[in-house]
Design brief:
- By secondary structure, this protein is of the alpha+beta class.
- The protein has a single domain, classed as Beta Barrel (Small Protein B, Chain: A), CATH 2.40.280.10.
- It contains three helices and seven strands; from the N terminus they run αβββββαββα.
- Strands 2-3-5 form a three-stranded antiparallel β-sheet, covered by helices on one side. The protein has a two-stranded antiparallel ribbon with strand order 1-4.
- Strand 2 and strand 3 form a beta hairpin.
- The mean pLDDT is 83.
């Protein structure tokens, strides 16, 4: 849509929660947020988090579909960029964290929080 293109040019897109889903042999980008510009009329804006179809070649679709059928793998959008007048999406196959990796991350986060608390208490005294 026109307002989405203008918002993309202004850099008002967020891909942090976005992922790619295969439906009936087609790829769709879900979870990406494109915030409309302030100058856009409200009756044009449908949804800022709607699904967007990705136009890919058959080989690319087959590669993504094969990767998604494997356990623990997902397809995510890492970047959006311009090539001429088209908006291109850079997609990557990603693998989720293992349980022990999640525990290590949580342990590091707790230690950083405790360290900040100790420093804050020492500064007050």
């Amino acid at each position: 849509m026109g307002w989405e293109v203008k918002a993309l040019r202004a850099g008002r897109v967020q891909l942090t929660e976005s992922f790619v889903v295969m439906t009936k042999g087609e790829a769709f980008l879900l979870g990406s947020q494109i915030s409309p510009l302030d100058t856009v009329s409200t009756h044009y804006v449908v949804e800022k988090t709607r699904s967007r179809k990705l136009l890919l070649h058959k080989k690319e679709l087959a590669k993504i579909n094969q990767a998604l059928t494997q356990k623990g793998q997902t397809c995510v959008c890492t970047a959006l960029y311009w090539k001429g007048h088209l908006v291109k999406a850079k997609v990557a196959i990603a693998q989720g964290k293992k349980q022990h990796d999640k525990r290590d991350t949580e342990k590091q986060r707790d230690w950083q929080r405790d360290k900040a608390r100790i420093v804050r208490e020492n500064v007050k005294q």
